[in-house]
Design brief:
21 strands, 23% strand, elongated
Length: 393
């Protein structure tokens, strides 16, 4: 194996040195104060659990906090700013950098870097080589990796000057990703608010119609028996709810396909392309426009609208009603299904077709801007992923 990466800054020529992790940092475990003792909790010391780690590069505020007494009366340790919080139990290999002093529970072996290592560089190195951690996992019920085994991990390490250059460069990309993510969320919030405001204003001047009354046809489908192999792996796209959750407005492909005999021997039905699909099970209230002819299961409703109704106007209106539908028709604690009768009787604002067309243009422009920023974000993430694969040995 080469001990230099495929991609590096041209001013650096020296080979990388192989080193054990225990020589690059101090490894510190965590602990949990007794939960029944109120004196140990609701203090000022941040106290992290593995579920809070890995969602972002930096972390500063924990869901729960402990007191100095709780820290001293448990195996929790105070970690300095810049520590890498590394989850080593159950969820293995998730990491974040602490922006201030903190502590953790016992699901961590946190890393306090030495002078010969740069904290952000080590963060990128470890998260890029997560498989190294997984090789040392033990346990059947709860997988974990010990402090001793963490210390035995070996990495090829750049000089401190090159570490700083790499970390600074990758951090610049991370900052751009964060800015784009923030921009994307703001655009989504603005679009949601604008659509709701528009619909509310239209309610004062337009008729309200049930969804059933503005459609040519509405139907759900069915699923061919999964035990009959000749029903599957055909050429007919067969919808799953997961196909809807992984798309934005337009359904262009499905992950599962059925045969003609599978379609004929089930209650599944084909929805021609260019119509609406509405989810009734699991992730309730999602709406997509199918760009392909697709066979429907029983978990969704296919909606073919009348000619005098703008499909996109109805799409955005249904999209804006997701929270209302879930809060109104789904009982807390249930699996989360609604029936076709509820969908058919959803009440929508139906202005004349010219107004529908006008608002659809406005809504679509917002959606296109969101898609543009979303694509930029995904491309930047892919770019970063490619760099990480080439900049570390």
């Amino acid at each position: 194996m080469n001990n230099v990466p495929k991609l590096r800054f041209k001013e650096f020529k020296l080979n990388y040195n192989k080193n054990f992790l225990k020589y690059l940092c101090t490894i510190i475990g965590g602990g949990t104060p007794r939960t029944e003792n109120n004196e140990f909790w609701n203090g000022t010391i941040e106290w992290f659990t593995p579920s809070e780690i890995g969602k972002s590069k930096y972390i500063s505020s924990s869901d729960r906090k402990i007191t100095e007494l709780g820290l001293n009366k448990s195996s929790a340790k105070k970690l300095p700013k810049g520590s890498i919080l590394l989850s080593t139990r159950a969820t293995i290999g998730e990491a974040s950098i602490a922006l201030k002093e903190c502590s953790t529970n016992q699901g961590f072996q946190s890393l306090v870097v030495n002078d010969n290592c740069e904290s952000e560089y080590l963060f990128y190195l470890i998260t890029q080589n997560k498989n190294k951690l997984l090789k040392y996992c033990t346990g059947s019920t709860f997988r974990e990796i010990s402090k001793r085994d963490i210390g035995k991990l070996e990495y090829y390490i750049a000089s401190i000057e090159e570490q700083i250059k790499i970390a600074t460069f990758l951090s610049t990309i991370d900052n751009k990703i964060e800015l784009l993510s923030h921009k994307l969320e703001l655009l989504k919030l603005y679009k949601r608010g604008f659509i709701r405001k528009s619909i509310t204003e239209l309610k004062l001047q337009c008729d309200i119609e049930k969804l059933l009354n503005i459609t040519k046809k509405m139907f759900s489908g069915g699923t061919p028996k999964s035990t009959v192999t000749e029903y599957y792996n055909g050429k007919i796209p067969f919808l799953k709810i997961s196909d809807m959750t992984s798309t934005n407005k337009y359904l262009r492909t499905c992950n599962k396909f059925i045969t003609k005999i599978g379609l004929d021997n089930s209650s599944s039905k084909i929805l021609p392309k260019g119509n609406l699909i509405y989810s009734m099970y699991a992730t309730i209230g999602l709406t997509v426009v199918n760009k392909i002819d697709v066979a429907l299961p029983q978990s969704v409703m296919g909606i073919i609208l009348n000619e005098n109704v703008n499909r996109d106007f109805i799409y955005y209106q249904l999209e804006s009603m997701i929270e209302y539908v879930r809060n109104t028709f789904v009982e807390t604690g249930t699996q989360g299904n609604i029936n076709s009768s509820i969908v058919k009787n959803l009440e929508l604002v139906i202005p004349n077709i010219d107004i529908q067309n006008d608002y659809s243009v406005k809504f679509n422009l917002m959606n296109e801007k969101i898609n543009c920023v979303s694509n930029q974000l995904e491309n930047l993430k892919l770019f970063k992923k490619g760099l990480l694969q080439k900049m570390f040995v």
